[in-house]
Amino acid sequence: MRHKLKFGFSSLSPKAALHDFLLLTAGALLLAVGVDIFMAPANIAPGGVAGIAIIVNNFTGWPIGTSMLVLNIPMLFFGFKYLGRFRFLTRTLYVVLLYNLGVDLLAPFLPSNGITDDLLLNSLYTAVIGGIGSGLVYRAQGTSAGTGVLGRVLQLKTGIPLSQSYLMTDGGIIVVLGLVFGWERALYSLLTLFAWGLVTDYVLEGPSVIRTAFIVTDKAEEVAHLLFSRLGIGVTSWNGRGMFTDTEHVVLFCTLNRPDVGVLKTVVVEADPHAFVVIGQGHQARGGVVRHLTEKEKKSVTEQKSMAGNQADNVKKPVPPLVKKSRL
Q: Which of 18-32 are b and which e, b meaning 16 or more Cβ less than 10 Å from the residue's Cβ?
């Protein structure tokens, strides 16, 4: 039996716990660097306790990281209640300490005035670095606390994207920033907030790099055979019925890369000019390895289909025995 790690990683193997620990660490450090190099020097605050801390620093001179840590205490209690209790507290407390204290500890080693005076560059790179950091932390089942806790709760409870939840939880802070630093910086902060959410979603879900295809056809064998031979993709089929015409059809499903969409359309028209095709998009596909069968396997599949065909009349048309597994 594998030994389990404690303190929020009790259900994970050592390898999985180490993976999450590294993600949390990398994410927290990126967030701290983003504050020191881009956010604080430009007085751009895309909401959150970091934005409040920058505003407080402007009036009091208190260290930004320390102010963030104090402001995060009530957020930790809120997250403890709604986001997993001790599992949330352990992971998030680690991120909060490393992120908030890292802002103050790393500041002496980083350019005090940032690396650019361009507000647009500062806002965009704040979003990119902060979004990557937040995404890594979320992938490890943690948060950086702050108003991100509120955004995460909204996402889990309602299903709205993180980009929208950020706008809902941090909009008021940007308004305050506009009153303190001017509305131009508020506008840049709003741009940063929006881009931050998009980058976080990208890190969490990955790029939309695959396409899904639903094909309603009366020539399933021909279509499936051509798809495999031309594109090397697996196909899954099931029976369907047109509700308007009350006609039986076969529905084929497959996934493919974006550049192959044009080939798929050509193949389907070639095999069945009357087929109905719907192309969608997806973020990720896993499993469903496609490969050629050996001659022995082909013979076995053919015999099994032949036996099934003798036992039932017109159950469904067989898919050619060229595909071992589909991508469904």
A: eebbebbbebbbbbb
Residue entry with tokens 């986001």: 83
pLDDT tens digits for 163-189? 677 667 778 788 888 888 889 988 998
- Looking at the fold, whether 200 and 217 belong to one and the same domain comes out as no
Q: Residue 60 in contact with residue 25, Cβ under 8 Å?
A: no
Does a structural domain hold residue 322?
no
CB half-sphere exposure, 14, CA atoms < 13 A: 3
**Sign of the CA dihedral running 147, 149, 150, 151:** positive
How many C-alpha atoms does 313 have within 13 Å on its Cβ side?
Answer: 0
How many Å apart are CA 286 and CA 300, to the nearest integer? Answer: 27
CATH number at residue 283: 3.30.70.120
Q: For 245-273, write each residue's pLDDT tens digit.
A: 888 899 999 988 777 888 888 889 999 99
For the chain, percent helix, then strand, then coil, each to nearest 5?
60, 10, 25
Q: Which long-range contacts (CB under 8 A, 24 or more apart) does 236-241 make?
A: 236/326, 236/327, 236/328, 237/316, 237/319, 239/316, 240/216
3-state secondary structure labels for all residues of 244-272: CCCEEEEEEEEEEEHHHHHHHHHHHHHHC
Each residue of 54-94: pLDDT tens digit? 999 888 888 999 999 998 888 887 777 776 667 667 888 89
Q: What are the two backbone dihedrals, phi and then psi, of residue 189, each rounded to the nearest 5 degrees?
A: -65, -40
